[in-house]
Amino acid sequence: MARLFHVPLSPFCRKVRLSLAEKKIEVELVEERYWEQDPDFMRRNPAGKVPVLRLDGIMMAESAAICEYIEETRPEPSLLPADPVQRLEVRRLVNWFDDKFHSDVTSKLLYERVNKKIMKQGYPDSANVKAGAKAIKYHLDYMAWLLDHRRWLAGDVMTLADFAAAAHLSALDYISDVDWNRSDAVRDWYAKIKSRPAFRSILADQMPGFPPPAHYSDLDF
């Protein structure tokens, strides 16, 4: 069985979990306190980051590389289109969420409010929290614009781009940092992807000291 070293609210880990679940790959989840830099974990990934996945006898790191490997070795159901132009758009949006959205929003809301407490790094920086709360509005509006022109974020079918976005937003939703009333299109998109079987294990996550909001696991929120 595959083994994933992860942190429950890490969007990068969630993206990998969604890819594995969508392709029905059984995986053992191992929570890893990567910030403690345990020597065994550092041998698995000298970068000292999660996710780290053991699959096919290979220890692999970096969520983008992991998801590409999963796609190449388990092509069905496909999460990357066959057309090169469409594939380019999927990769662009995955990078948008894992780079820009992460920098603008996730690092300023989730990391300030949750990660700092878990890692015992002090209190949230109010300026960062305020900046993240402002930035998420821009990103939700951009998603709404995309969904006004497409059925899914990157086109007419669900792709890894949708999983990348949902991974970040689901983690933020756990701490009630997403205004789902800002866009009906984004809310409907999230309800649709949240109802997929691949999402079940994510909705069951519990972080000690951080109870999820009442609507978190509600598929008809």
UniProtKB/TrEMBL annotation:
SUPFAM superfamilies: GST C-terminal domain-like, Thioredoxin-like. Pfam families: GST_C_3, GST_N_3. One of its GO terms (biological process) is glutathione metabolic process. Residues 1-78 form the GST N-terminal domain. Homodimer. PANTHER family: GLUTATHIONE S TRANSFERASE D10, ISOFORM A-RELATED. This is Glutathione S-transferase family protein.
